[in-house]
Specification:
The protein is an all-beta fold and about 500 residues long. Helix content is about 0%, strand content about 50%. The protein is built from one helix and 45 strands. A hairpin with a 4-residue loop joins β14 and β15.
Length: about 500
């Protein structure tokens, strides 16, 4: 006959059927979805909530059928992380490793073992000595760890399954790819610009060549490209390297020595193109760059008859020698004289060199004097100074007032040398109506030199010969130190 059997007390989640046992030895499962499971004990399957299955059991003799409720709660049993593992690309013969955490989320201890299966199982192995290896049973709420290694022995994709055998056991899919060892070469810096370099001069740069790969590189290094002859390898440890081991590095020194003007380019190339760094630079013609410092020299106020001196520096910061010559030009060039300095003996100012020029200002007239100091057509400096007098006159101007034609009148002018040295003394009357004014006496009349701090007098007579305003100028000193305006009116 047949009966429906309902088993109660099941957990709320999915249940795992691990095995079936019979109290009556002669009982035999003959039909139903569990028939093959019993025949191949132990068996394992999972029934989701609400799912049922049917079996037929034949009793060959009288007895009782006993069914026990010993279900495992799949939601609270073993758990493993990660649930899948890719080892990625691993060089043949090298080792890839991954760690797994196994936990018992159930309420009873679980005995477990680990095993690997699949077409490439031999490429994977569970590492001995882990915390899981020392356990036969994983206590409720406990966890442990173990590692799996991937050691490919051939090229290509490989896979296997890691199984943790136990009630509620778990599996992990393992994948990895065996790849050939290869060199990975890099050059640092990845590019080098040497900038402007004068023809005949050089500029250098140091590069580091490294192999971050997994295989040694048969090594060669060279400069290649359109203008390769403008660049050269001049040193570095790479020169002695025949094979660059995995993880190793060396240095290469490249020199840029242009022989022509313009933009030039090449490349530093390793092992037939395994790595390359662009090289660039510009060849420029040599040229002198001359400057005078200071660019403007002011001598300030200088008393007539005296001198002031300044030193200027001429430098060549260029890349070629400068033919050397100097000149002073301009409206008052005669007041400025080159009197010495190291430049006096220089015929050519070499690149990077400098020399000095001593210039003297000796004013020949009152007022501002200007000139220009030039070094060929390459550089110039402005020169300025002011001629002043230490001689004073009192009164500073003489007005004779109105006077009838045919009459005359005289005034005295006192001349004082307020300087520290004597001045050459002379006097003269010039101007539109100079004939109307005459020097008639005074202590200055017989002097050839007026000493420092000394004074003398000049008597000036006004005798108009015509009506109207009459003007002239009294000049004192040689060169002229001071002028005194003279005025009067003939009636």
């Amino acid at each position: 006959g047949s009966s429906n059997i309902t088993v109660g007390g099941l957990p709320s989640g999915a249940v795992t059927v691990n095995e079936m046992a019979f109290a009556v030895p002669c009982a035999q499962v003959t039909t139903g979805t569990l028939a093959t499971w019993v025949a191949q004990q132990p068996v394992m399957t999972t029934l989701t909530p609400g799912q049922t299955t049917a079996i037929s059991i034949v009793l060959r003799r009288a007895g009782q059928l006993s069914i026990s409720n010993d279900f495992e709660d799949g939601a609270s049993g073993l758990a493993i992380a990660p649930s899948s593992q890719s080892f990625g690309n691993v060089v043949v013969g090298a080792v890839g490793s991954a760690s797994f955490a196994l936990a018992n989320n159930g309420t009873t201890g679980i005995a477990f073992t680990t095993a690997l299966s699949g077409s490439n199982a031999t490429a994977f192995s569970v590492v001995a000595g882990s915390s899981c290896a020392a356990l036969g049973t994983l206590a409720p709420g406990a966890a442990c760890t173990f590692s799996v290694q991937f050691v490919p022995t051939a090229l290509g994709a490989m896979s296997a399954t890691l199984a943790v055998s136990a009630p509620g056991g778990v599996t992990v899919a393992l994948t990895g790819t065996g790849v050939a060892a290869a060199a990975v070469v890099a050059i640092a810096p990845a590019a080098e610009t040497f900038g402007n370099v004068v023809i005949g001069q050089t500029s250098g740069a140091t590069f580091t060549v490294s192999n971050s790969g997994t295989a040694a590189l048969t090594f060669s290094i060279a400069v290649t490209g359109t203008n390769a002859t403008q660049f050269s390898l001049t040193g570095g440890s790479c020169a002695a390297v025949a094979s660059l081991a995995a993880g190793a590095s060396c240095t290469a020194v490249v020199q840029f020595a242009p022989t022509t003007t313009g933009a030039l380019s090449a490349a530093l190339t390793v092992a037939g193109g395994a790595a390359s760094a662009p090289l660039s630079g510009t060849g420029v013609a040599a040229a002198a760059v001359v400057a005078i410092a200071p660019a403007t020299e002011s001598f300030g106020n200088v008393t007539l008859g005296r001198t002031a001196t300044a030193t200027l520096t001429v430098s060549n910061s260029g890349t070629a020698s400068a033919p050397f010559s100097t000149a002073v030009t301009g409206p008052n060039a005669a007041a400025f004289t080159r009197t010495g300095g190291s430049c006096a003996s220089v015929a050519s100012l070499t690149a990077g060199a400098s020399c000095t020029l001593t210039v003297q200002f000796a004013p020949t007239a009152l007022g501002t004097a200007t000139a220009t100091l030039s070094v060929g057509a390459l550089a110039s400096a402005a020169l300025t100074g002011v001629g002043v007098s230490a001689v004073t006159a009192s009164p500073a101007q003489v007005s004779f007032g109105n006077l009838n034609v045919g009459q005359n009148t005289s005034n005295t002018v006192t001349i004082t040398n307020g300087g520290t040295t004597a001045v050459t003394f002379s006097s003269s009357i010039t101007g539109t109506n100079a004939a109307e004014f005459t020097r008639t006496g005074g202590s200055c009349a017989t002097l050839a030199s007026l000493g420092a701090g000394a004074s003398c007098s000049l008597t000036i007579r006004f005798a108009p010969t015509a009506t109207g305003a009459q003007t002239a100028v009294l000049s004192i000193g040689s060169p002229t130190q001071i002028t005194v305006p003279l005025t009067g009116t003939g009636l």
